[in-house]
Amino acid sequence: MAIATINPATGETLKIFEPLTDAEISAKLEFSQQAFEKYRQIPMAQRSQWMNATAEILEREKEKFGKLMTLEMGKPLKGAIAEIEKCALVCRYYAEHAAEFLADVPVTTDANHSFVRYQPLGAILAVMPWNFPFWQVFRFAAPALMAGNVGLLKHASNVPQCALAIEEIFTQAGFPAGVFQTLLVGSDRVVAIVADERVKAATLTGSELAGASLAAAAGKQIKKTVLELGGSDPFIVMPSADLEAAVATAVTARMLNNGQSCIAAKRFIVAEAVADRFEKQLVEKFKVLKVGDPMLPDTDLGPLATPNILQDLDYQVKETVKSGAKVLAGGQPISDRPGNFYPPTILTDIPPGTPGDEEEFFGPVALLFRVTDIDAAIKLANATPFGLGASAWTTDEQERDRFVSELEAGAVFINGMVKSDPRLPFGGVKRSGYGRELSIQGIHEFVNVKTVWVK
Questions:
Q1: Residue 59: which CATH number?
Q2: Residue 19 falls inside a structural domain
């Protein structure tokens, strides 16, 4: 894929970028190493000041950065602005809490004095996706920089202007040159960058295939990685649920970011006793969603990010329907306008072994399943290679406890939509990846947890 800005609402190529040469990459890695040697000595209070300044820039220019996101990957502008606000929130969170999270931890042993100290590793490579082009980066960068590491960003090739803007934000905020750099390179350069001794660890948010490739490359170099990969999150509705709230949340949870979110609700698993009502209300709400120009404030659903994503989603739907699934809404690409538009779609009566039963759908398609009881709901929810998030709706305390204990996911939300929060760790199990971002657990991923023992 070329490194370029291509408006997904029109298909127009707006700007093309030349990837860095080998010599330019090497120079940036050397600059990163030199910056780290100085930056690691900077007091935490100064880092906090720069991180708060970063938040101020984001808040002050949120509409500008929001429009840039919408232009490059097509999310509705209101959602893009909200994403910038969330980036400011994570910056402020770590500016306030990093010193506490990284403070020495005394431990009583046979020594006169023993403790755990957290120290930075060095340059961390972040391979980031296009779907949340600011948030995914900032939830890595805020804790990493506050811990004293320096960042190298290899962003998705369809959001290069977002990638460059993020580097400029950190520079404007006062962070020293070289502390955060964007590398405009294709995915074919990642293995060589990971192998460079100046890169100490790596994190990736993206596809299962990309995650496996990065993990293999880093494993050969004995380097730490954190992976946040795909998801096919269940959204379980039991008879005792507040059905109106569940339906309203289901629409938001599936349509967020034009349906292109790893933690979007994708498989709606509904108890037979309330399935007819849930289905009817969900169809009604899907059919009134407005698809159109993502820059307009009343647009609910914009285009998918690339033509390939549209083609893949269309193929998955058609294959599932060909095998016997029923279409309750949508089901065909929107062809009467340019751009990568796909309508809000609901499939039900999904046969086993079809894409709708086994694969992640990365777009505005809800997969609706009916179950007889909680045992069947949990079994179906766990019948996936993914384990990122899960949402369950019930007012029954015993059911709630079973969902919390038995759902195979990195996050379980009861009577709410799965979302990331700087105060809580975020990550998955199974083929959704490993390691955690955010909270105290996130900042501890890329530090040397050093044992100190003094007699």
A1: 3.40.605.10
A2: yes
Question: Could you tell me if residue 426 is inside a domain?
Answer: no
**Confidence (pLDDT) at 314:** 98
Chain centre distance of CA 248: 22
Distance CA 332, CA 314 (A): 7
Please check whether residues 131 and 203 belong to one and the same domain: yes
Domain residues for 94?
4-229+432-454
Of 319, 391, 409, 310, the closest CA to residue 356 belongs to: 319
Alpha-carbon dihedral 252, 257, 260, 261, rounded to 10 degrees: -70
Q: Over the stretch 63-88, which tens digit does the pLDDT of each residue have?
A: 999 999 999 999 999 999 999 999 99
- The total number of structural domains in the chain stands at 2
For residue 369, tell me if it sits in a domain: yes
Q: Assign 370 a pLDDT band (cuts: 50, 70, 90).
A: very high
| C-beta of residue 257 within 8 angstroms of C-beta of residue 75 | yes
Q: How many residues does the chain have?
A: 455
- Given a cut of 90, whether residue 1 has pLDDT beyond it is no
> Is 163 in the same domain as 303?
no
Average pLDDT over residues 432-451: 98
Tell me the three state secondary structure of residue 180. strand
Catalytic residues: 228, 262
325 and 413 inside one domain = yes
Burial 286-319 (b: 16+ CB within 10 A, else e): beebebbbbbeeebbbbbbbbeebbebbbebbee
pLDDT at 71: 98
Instruction: Collect all residues with Cβ–Cβ distance below 8 Å to 289 and sequence separation of at least 6.
Output: 251, 255, 300, 301, 344
